[in-house]
Design a protein that fits this description.
Layout (H helix, E strand, L loop, with lengths): L8 E5 L6 H8 L3 E5 L6 H19 L4 E5 L6 H10 L3 E5 L10 H13 L2 E4 L2 H11 L6 E3 L22 E6 L4 H4 L1 H8 L2 H4 L3 E6 L5 H10 L5 E5 L4 H5 L4 E4 L8 H8 L4 E4 L4 H4 L6 E4 L3 H13 L4 H15 L4 H50 L1
Parallel strand pairs: 1-2, 3-4, 4-5, 5-6, 7-8, 7-10, 8-9, 10-11, 11-12
Helix pairs in contact: 2-3, 3-4, 7-13, 11-14
């Protein structure tokens, strides 16, 4: 959007100045501001962030504000601010968790912000339905969209060699236990049968619980796992791994799942978020629940059918290409631009109508004054 000449201002929490996408935005003359986070002072910091954003909105009066929130409720205060300033906004919700329900006293407030949005975007049907249940209304302004991914577009990658007959899996997710559930997987891998099999799991990602996870792996005396850190080279992961494993407790629609399937790799994933919307159990992957025994059973099935995994990966690659548009980022940007342009046009029409009404009012007042003067002269 910025590259097309539109003026974009970005306000982001935990801003990483070294992120290539942030640097690209700055190179396109976009305003990029950091919304600071200090956990011990967060209520105060949130109010200060709102003041900074409110000042910007009052001065610039944008045609549209895009509120992108990680959880489906954690950015609603920005939507509330837009409502108060009468500036159109859209909400993007990247995740909704089944274990969270808003307190009754805040449901009306949350409902009003979702209903008042020009559009509410979700990344899975599950997240949309769950949000509607949480706030107690159907959202006629809701739409499910695809996030952009980093996987190769042309076709699946060649199947990796099975060096030493090892089955190599990758768990690609933010290292945050409450959502991603890597602790569940580590406890399963600590069972004697998995320690004695040629199974290896590489954990990719960064996050708040890296130390906790590496410590847990050490405590469990796991020799069949490693923590590889963050990488943007998705193809490099799947050239060397046979399957994805995601023990998540909550999800939107994980990009790592889309990318693995694009690369021709089946997945073992939990039935949370949008996972069941793109995985056909036993055909393109395996679905399970975020509990140790359930994940153990799914791993056992994948192990017993490991000779079928290449074929499952091929089916996964075909299926995900049937679902995901060729360029989801460009498609979504076009959607947002269409909304913004429609709002700008409506705004111009209202301004013209007000000007015409004001002109008629002045003309009528002048006519009345002229008649009064004529009567006075007579």
């Amino acid at each position: 959007m910025a590259a097309s000449g539109h003026r974009i201002s970005v306000f982001k929490t935990a801003l990483d100045e070294t992120c290539p996408r942030i640097q690209q935005l700055k190179s396109l003359s976009c305003r990029v501001r950091n919304l600071h986070r200090f956990p011990r002072l967060q209520p105060l910091i949130t109010r200060l962030n709102l003041l900074v954003l409110a000042s910007h909105l009052v001065i610039h009066r944008p045609n549209l504000v895009i509120v992108s929130q990680g959880d489906n409720h954690d950015g609603l205060h920005f939507g509330y601010l837009c409502q108060k300033l009468r500036i159109p906004y859209v909400l993007i919700s990247q995740k909704a968790a089944d274990h969270f329900w808003p307190p009754d006293e805040s449901r009306q407030y949350r409902r009003g912000i979702f209903v008042g949005a020009t559009r509410c975007f979700f990344v899975s049907e599950h997240n949309r339905r769950l949000t509607e249940d949480q706030i107690g209304t159907n959202l006629t302004n809701a739409e499910v969209v695809w996030n952009p991914h980093l996987a190769p577009i042309d076709g699946p990658l060649p199947w990796p060699d099975s060096a030493n007959e090892y089955l190599r899996m990758a768990c690609v997710a933010r290292l945050y236990l409450l959502d991603k559930g890597q602790d569940i997987l580590l406890r399963v891998l600590a069972r004697d049968k998995w320690k004695g099999r040629k199974l290896y799991v590489s954990f990719y990602g960064s996050g708040a619980n890296r130390d906790a996870l590496t410590s847990l792996a050490t405590r469990l005396d796991l020799r069949n796992v490693s923590f590889e850190g963050q990488t943007a080279d998705i193809a490099s992961i799947w050239r060397n791994h046979h399957a994805l494993i995601l023990p998540s407790r909550a999800e939107g629609l994980p990009l790592s799942l889309v990318e693995a399937m694009m690369c021709g790799r089946p997945a073992i994933a939990t039935r949370v978020g949008g996972n069941p919307e793109i995985i056909e159990n036993g055909v393109t992957g395996f679905l399970t629940s975020p509990f140790e025994d359930a994940i153990d059973l799914a791993l056992e099935e994948a192990w017993s059918r490991r000779s079928e995994l290449p074929e499952m990966g091929q089916r996964a690659s075909i299926r995900i290409r049937e679902l995901v548009p060729l360029n989801p980022a460009q498609e979504f940007a076009g959607n947002l631009l269409k909304i913004a342009q429609g709002l700008a046009e409506d705004k111009r029409e209202r301004e013209v109508a007000r000007a015409v009404t004001a002109g008629v009012g002045v003309e009528s007042q002048t006519s009345v004054e002229s008649e009064a003067q004529a009567r006075h002269v007579g």
